[in-house]
Amino acid sequence: MSLLIKNGRVITAVDDYHADIFIEKDTISVIGKSLSMAADQTIDAKGKLVIPGGIDPHTHLDMPFGGTVSADDFESGTRAAAHGGTTTLIDFAIQTKGESTLQGLDTWHQKAEGKTAIDYGFHMIITDMEDHRINEMKTLANEGVTSYKLFMAYPGVLYVDDGTIYRAMRKAGEDGTVICMHAENGIVIDEIVKEALKKGHTEPKYHALTRPTRMEAEGVHRAIAIAEVAEVPVYIVHLSSADALQQVVLARDRGVHAFAETCPQYLFLDQSYYEKPDFEGAKYVMTPALREKWNQDELWRGLQFGDLQSISTDHCPFCFKEQKELGRNDFSKIPNGAPGVENRMSLVHNGGVVQGRINLNKFVDLTSTAAAKTFGLFPKKGTIAIGTDADIVIFDPDRKETISVNNPCTHHMRVDYNAYEGIEVQGISETVISRGKVIVENCDYIGKKGDGQFIKRGLYGGI
Ligand code: URP
Ligand code: ZN
Ligand code: ZN
């Protein structure tokens, strides 16, 4: 099978030129001006951008959490991701406390295998790491799971103490792998939550009011300090506030290998969303919480100047009617998480490129290349070059759509609301190619379940 993409404007994290791209099977084999090769299929990309498929390094599909399970599984979630121009995601497998991480990996392989529309990898969430288990981390790395997430939040659920963090970090550093950190002081936050509930403060807005940005900043500071001593690169996930960002900036200025992602929810939504009537604020209960609006400018500044490297979604959808309802009388019981895997590329293009905050190269870097580099996927993925996987999005930079749960071009996630409802975006992923196969054609999904493959990722590649 061969595919020729003609007349497009090819954008990578560093390039910007007009060319044709010839794909044989799943790989880009020729890039050149006016190629006249015979191909099984030809796509005219005139007037469109030809960009590397998006990489979303942070999703939670089919994840048991908050007394329920996230609403998208590996079939529906990866199909929605494909619609939005994402061709690889890295989801989180979970170690059950007291059990082997390898068992956790098996469980997540079973959830995903044969179901996905796009390629995928796993990080491993470590919930304990006793000495006798520590060598499992090397086995995981050999299996292509080269990053681990640790939680300073959610005591009694996913939380690990500083000793466990240090042990896991030491081993990760020795093995050349990466630690992802949910950095918030969950122990203190739980005390603040208890105080609020005692006062009868049960509405969704108290989710934000009980999670001060200082407790995020403290977590980020501590995570980076421990990582520095343990000699391991640390990647702060879903960074949400200026307060926390400042800690990353200070560390990077000192030469520490500290990296961070933010997410569209922290760039486009804010704390006022919790005030929505009729319990609708519950739709935005996620952790970290949405912040005061002024933080958004600081996060964009972090993206512009390289202190934040990636934009992931932390896609963790729960239906408003059936699942968020679990916390109707107690905000602390609202399942934490929100949908977004489908809307990331359009939101970032609109808020970033169209609004003049970043250029197209940076757009590609933030949505694809940087994650590929951090998580051992580069150069197979995250760029357009001869020999790379033909994961390509033909992106219309001018087309406008209003994001809505009812718009068939913007919502295929299996959840009954869209967190970005009513936001108009300019820039749509029109045609999506995954390893040489067209899986989305002008908003229509034409791929099939099982097109995606598990990707064994390489070690951390350095800066
Ligand atoms: O609210 C969130 N973010 N839910 C998913 C779990 C996590 O902390 O990433
Ligand atoms: Zn988290
Ligand atoms: Zn998450």
Write a structural description.
- It is built from 12 helices and 19 strands.
- With 463 residues, the protein is of the alpha/beta class.
- It has a domain at 54-374: TIM Barrel (Alpha-Beta Barrel), CATH 3.20.20.140.
- Bound molecules: N-(aminocarbonyl)-beta-alanine (URP) and zinc ion (2 copies).
- One zinc ion is lined by residues 58, 60, 238, 314, 316.
Instruction: Indicate the proportion of strand residues.
Output: 15-25%
Mean pLDDT: 98
Query: By CATH's scheme, which homologous superfamily of the domain at 54-374 applies?
Result: Metal-dependent hydrolases
- The Rg value, from CA coordinates, equals 21 Å
Number of helices: 12
Q: What small molecules does the structure contain?
A: N-(aminocarbonyl)-beta-alanine, zinc ion
Helix/strand-derived category reads alpha/beta
Assign the CATH topology of the domain at 54-374: TIM Barrel
The coarse overall form would be globular
* N/C terminus separation: 36 Å
Number of strands: 19
